[in-house]
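mind reviewing these tokens:
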Amino acid sequence: MTTITLHDDRSFDLDRTLSCGQAFRWEKADGWWQGVSCGRAVRIRQDANRLTFEGADAGFVRAYFQLDQDLPAILASIDRDPIIGAAIQECRGLRLVRQQPWECLISYICATNTNIPAVKRRVALMAERYGKPIDGHSGTAHAFPEPEVLAETSHADLWDCKLGYRTDYVCEAAAYVAEHPDWAERVAALPFEEARRALMQFTGVGPKAADCVLLFAFGFFEAFPVDVWIRRIVAETYLPDLSGKGCTPAEYERIRRFSRDYFGEYAGYAQEYLYCARGPASRPG
């Protein structure tokens, strides 16, 4: 077991971070969070300001949970009104995790028009069937499959992973990434709007999925994903003239640009805190 002592236990809340719906391969049992990330089967728990973990070194844990970010300064920069202020107080310690781009891309392709438990099932099935086995605390775990493996997997076999119409999108993305292994480096080197357009070239990646991948895998903290819950919060609090109950492309664009201007360079943190404070993270997105 390895431990990290945090300077302030309010600067990180493991439970909120892993239960808020940003990553799909973590489950909590007997006080421990168990998950797989970047080919590692990790078990971790928090007791006040102490993190105890196995399956990864301290450097990986610090990088994955972005523990070296100045969270108090980030939260101070987005604390602009009583609504976000209340969300910060309720969810303080929530951090954005830094995910592997390929897995994050496929996970959010699988997350369209569904809920978090369904996404977890799809991702788990792909990992169990096509991912590399790794030793974990509770037995054999599986890394997320490499793009080359999914690119060679038949459409019918991927369909059996409960992907539905998303099967075509996963097949196309896997084929492209297998052929262009530097895709993530090229996206990361682009300015935000260009990176966003590049991700939306993948079939099945719309504005919300692109913003999620930019936020959770590439560290573009200005990204502001808009789902039905975020739209409702923004309409009730910030833009009361939004029409109807849906979210048209024009409304999505208006909401994300307003949020970037209003909350600043860490608008993505504001999004996640507003989302976390709205209730259970298992509703349709």
User: Anything to note?
Assistant: DSSP finds 15 helices and seven strands in the chain. The longest helix spans residues 116-130. The two ends are 37 Å apart (CA to CA). Strands lie at 2-5, 26-29, 32-37, 40-47, 50-54, 133-136, 139-142.
